[in-house]
Amino acid sequence: MQMSAGVWAQDKWGQGQGYPTGLQGGLVREPMYRVGNFSGGYEKIFPHNTLKAPAKPAVPYTEKPISLVYRTGFSERTPEDYLRSWPITGLLIARGNHILFERYQYERSAQMRLTGWSMAKSITSLLLGICLDLKLIQSYDDPAEKYVPSLKGTLHGGVSLRNLSNMSSGADVLHDRDNAIIYPSAFMQPKSSIASTVAGWNRRREDPGTKYNYNELCPLTLGMVIRQVSGMSISAFAEKVLWQPMGAEADATWSTDAEQNEFNCVGFAARLRDWARLGRLVAEKGSVGGLQVVSEAWIHECSHWGYRDRQCRHGVAGPGFGYKAHMWHAKADGSRLSFAGAQGQRVMIDIPTQTVVVQTAVDNVVGPWEREWLDLIAAATRA
């Protein structure tokens, strides 16, 4: 039985308090603060860097609404039904420069920046690819310490960029267990430091490249490499080589540690349409409006597995999914990949149809939500 938004009890999400912001109860633990925090609240709480948009979008969107009906379980549903059933703040379906569907809930709007949490890892991947394209990095299989001298002799310094982006560092770190240590140490405290947290984590569990193990330290290490080889903050580099060339319509922000270094495993905030532009960039194999922003070779790398990526292949990384270069994969052929964040945030990209579906949400409801999401995606690609 589907649960309506009314059953979810609006006050659970802080409607009666005007969708407040704050860290009462922890970073994401208290539902009342999630809507507010994920739509501008974190920018008030944590330091952040800003990515400025260009004077005008390179390829403006045009609205081309469609009537979409899909079947999930024994029911026929519409995107409006889907929105009413789950705690989703924004939903957008696009193909090329056409927006087929766009709606918001909980008094959110198209002008708000919506934080995508771990979707930031996939942006880090695009920036890594651009570093390779620009020859700032010589090889995807180089160790991190080749570019970050302060990591020489450390566990993460000796891991290749490939294994870092494939979540295969071999470090003894567990996402559910150790985020309680990593987040305060590298992000949330007045003296937090990404560099010292990464350099100090030297417990090894297995050889690099042996096993897929999702964690925050892998992308944080890549962030250190990107800063070093570009000679600027990740945000400044992203603004120059990604955000402005892509033709974003509005500024974005990226949360930082106390040293103004981006906590690049999470904390990227952008308008829904700009999240869709990032997805479109992947769908169109790195180009936008005839400009090649990131090479087609890197998009191919993100969507294919070779011998050195065998531990994160579809069905090997986990049942029904694969992982490659900080991109999630719903199909074994690499044709449907996604950015994914906690609390149900997604940018799903279907390369054959160039369909992009963006969802920002405030609760990662498992089971029925995920099944219906996949049914909605399938219908959107057929529309």
TL;DR?
It contains 11 helices and 16 strands.
Describe it.
- The chain is an alpha+beta fold and 383 residues long.
- It has a single domain (10-382), classed as DD-peptidase/beta-lactamase superfamily (Beta-lactamase, 3-Layer(aba) Sandwich).
- Helices cover 31% and strands 17% of the residues.
- It has 11 helices and 16 strands.
- The protein has helices spanning 34-45, 79-85, 120-133, 161-165, 175-188, 194-200, 217-230, 234-246, 272-283, 296-302, 368-382, and strands spanning 48-51, 62-63, 70-72, 75-77, 88-95, 98-104, 114-115, 252-255, 268-270, 287-288, 291-292, 322-324, 327-329, 336-341, 345-350, 355-361.
- Strand 14 and strand 15 (345-350) form a beta hairpin.
Write the layout of secondary structure elements.
Blueprint: H1 34-45, E1 48-51, E2 62-63, E3 70-72, E4 75-77, H2 79-85, E5 88-95, E6 98-104, E7 114-115, H3 120-133, H4 161-165, H5 175-188, H6 194-200, H7 217-230, H8 234-246, E8 252-255, E9 268-270, H9 272-283, E10 287-288, E11 291-292, H10 296-302, E12 322-324, E13 327-329, E14 336-341, E15 345-350, E16 355-361, H11 368-382
Helix pairs in contact: 3-7, 5-6, 6-7
Can you name the CATH architecture? 3-Layer(aba) Sandwich
Radius of gyration: 20 Å
Cα end-to-end separation: 26 Å
Q: What percent of the residues sit in helical stretches (DSSP H or I)? A: 25-40%
The CATH class, by name, is Alpha Beta
Main attributes of the structure:
eight-stranded mixed sheet; 383 residues; alpha+beta; disordered N terminus; 11 helices; Beta-lactamase; 31% helix; four-stranded antiparallel sheet; 17% strand
